[in-house]
Specification:
The structure holds 2 protein chains of 2 kinds.
Chain A (H helix, E strand, L loop, with lengths): L13 E12 L2 E8 L10 E7 L5 E7 L9 E7 L7 H6 L6 E8 L12 E7 L3 H13 L6 E7 L8 H10 L3 E7 L15 H10 L4 E9 H13 L7 E6 L1
Parallel strand pairs in A: 7-8, 7-10, 8-9, 10-11
Antiparallel strand pairs in A: 1-2, 1-6, 2-5, 3-4, 3-6
Chain B lengths: L23 E2 L20 E6 L2 E7 H5 L4 E8 L4 E12 H7 L9 E6 L4 E5 L9 E6 L2 E2 L9 E3 L12 E7 L28
The chains are: A alpha/beta, B mainly beta.
Chain lengths: 248, 202
């Protein structure tokens, strides 16, 4: 385990400029934020965003960092448009390149993976739960890690797979990285699985690793994380090596 | 700093005073967990009260159910920024647990709550007694679902909800304020939502 020491440095708010916006899927956009006070972070950590109205009312949300650690003064967030949301509609419908946004971070000392850790690692992401796992996959590639890494990524349709092309490229280029996709709506049968994640799928996916996983990271909605986590336990994974992060 | 173009979505005016800064209301009941849900059956369940390393009293499910039961309706606030109003819980007040263990006065100023999954969190004793907190076994009159912390969870509604440990199996008096799971990982030692004590240094 890393980064378990209490951080004594208070987390300070800073201003970041939206340097670039890109459409990732029909519901997800990436925002590259240029930090005024750059910080180092670990793969899997998140930042808190604070939006403030003219009358002082403010809203906060946490967003995982999608970038790999150590890539300069910009961080990438991939934000899904939530129905009846407050902050995500602002990002999708109002925010523009050049706007200033308040944030602080990095936050989170548990759902993190470091390429220096030995052993196989299993990543299981549902929907926008891919984001912190993407940071881990990019970190794995950037450090040219030989640790066997397998990402099981579930989404509704092929078009909803965030980072689809980049993940396909990682899979093609890197022998130590495996990608398995699972789509709940897959009329063309393009994915490895055409159903929701279940215990049988977890068992088969874990068997694809050359050795039992030393760490398992699961991120997604509550039902997704429950299905993947319990499936991993049924496949023989010790609960204590399974780390979860949930949204909504 | 005002954010260009952000107007925000405030809650209904009649409840705005009940929503701490930076929080927004939800009608759902989101879940937050560091690991997979442990499924604990009530026949296997037990709860211990400890002073330091020493267990001074423990209860099985039936014995715990025989203690004085209390109902609390409280607003709850998660550090991930959702707040939920008027949540209804039943269980045993910490006061009644201490009395059942024969403790007239709390022996120390601090407590740690421990859970079946290895989770822990620290709360000052003063925030657990005086009718402020309970070990809850019912939510909305029904058994608490496993992913929400059943069979039993701590309820300390006036602090951020990570202090309300799910799957609780022990309360331990400690001499010092010892950091729990999230507190060791940068979260605030106390966690008052009205002072936005989310992280260490807030």
């Amino acid at each position: 385990m890393t980064a378990t020491e209490r951080t004594r440095e208070p987390l300070r708010w800073q201003t970041a400029k939206i340097a670039r916006i890109a459409v990732q899927t029909p519901r997800v956009r990436s925002f590259w934020l240029r930090l005024s006070r750059p910080f180092g972070f670990l793969a899997g950590q998140h930042v808190d965003i604070r939006l403030t109205a003219d009358d002082g009312y403010s809203a906060r949300r946490s967003y995982s960092i999608a970038s790999a650690p150590g890539v300069g003064d910009e961080i990438e967030l991939a934000i899904e448009l939530m129905e009846n949301g407050e902050v995500s509609p602002f990002f999708h419908e109002v925010a523009q390149e050049g706007d200033d946004i308040e944030l602080r971070g990095p936050i989170g000392g548990y759902f993190i993976w470091n390429a220096s850790e030995p052993g196989a690692v299993l990543l299981v992401g549902g929907g926008s739960g891919i984001v912190p796992l993407m940071s881990m996959a990019r970190h794995h590639a950037k450090e040219d890690s030989r640790a066997p890494m397998l990402l099981l990524y579930s989404a509704r349709t092929s078009d909803d797979l965030i980072f689809r092309d980049e993940l396909a490229s990682l899979k093609a280029r890197r022998g130590s990285f495996q990608l398995v996709t699972s789509l709940t709506r897959d009329p063309a049968g393009t994915a490895d699985y055409s159903r929701r994640v279940d215990a049988e799928m977890m068992r088969e996916v874990i068997a694809r690793l050359p050795e039992p996983p030393r760490e398992v990271f699961v991120c997604g909605s509550n039902p997704f994380v429950e299905a993947a986590g319990q499936g991993a336990i049924m496949a023989g994974v010790a609960p204590k090596i399974i780390r979860t992060e949930l949204y909504g | 700093m005002a954010t260009r173009g952000f107007t925000g979505r405030r809650g209904p005016p009649d409840v705005q005073g009940r929503v701490p800064p930076g929080q927004s209301l939800t009608a759902d009941f989101p879940v937050l967990s560091a690991g997979p849900t442990p499924y604990v059956e009530t026949k296997d369940w037990s709860f211990a009260l400890k002073v330091g390393p020493k267990t001074i009293k423990s209860w099985n499910w039936a014995e715990f159910g025989a203690l004085t039961q209390t109902q609390l309706t409280r607003d709850i606030h998660c550090v991930t920024t959702w707040s939920k109003l008027d949540t209804n819980w039943s269980g045993v007040l910490i006061d009644d647990i201490l009395a059942a263990a024969g403790l007239a006065e709390p022996p120390t100023l601090y407590m740690l709550a421990h859970s079946y999954d290895g989770y822990s969190t620290n709360v000052p004793t003063a925030d657990l007694v005086g009718g402020k907190a309970m070990v809850a076994t019912l939510y909305d009159g029904k058994p608490i679902a496993p992913d929400h912390g059943g069979p039993a969870r701590l309820l300390v509604p006036h602090l951020y909800f990570w202090k309300s440990a799910k799957w609780i199996n022990a309360l331990q008096f400690t001499e010092r304020d010892e950091a729990g799971f999230w507190e060791l990982r940068g979260y605030h030692m106390y966690g008052d939502p009205w002072r936005e004590q989310r992280f260490d240094g807030d």
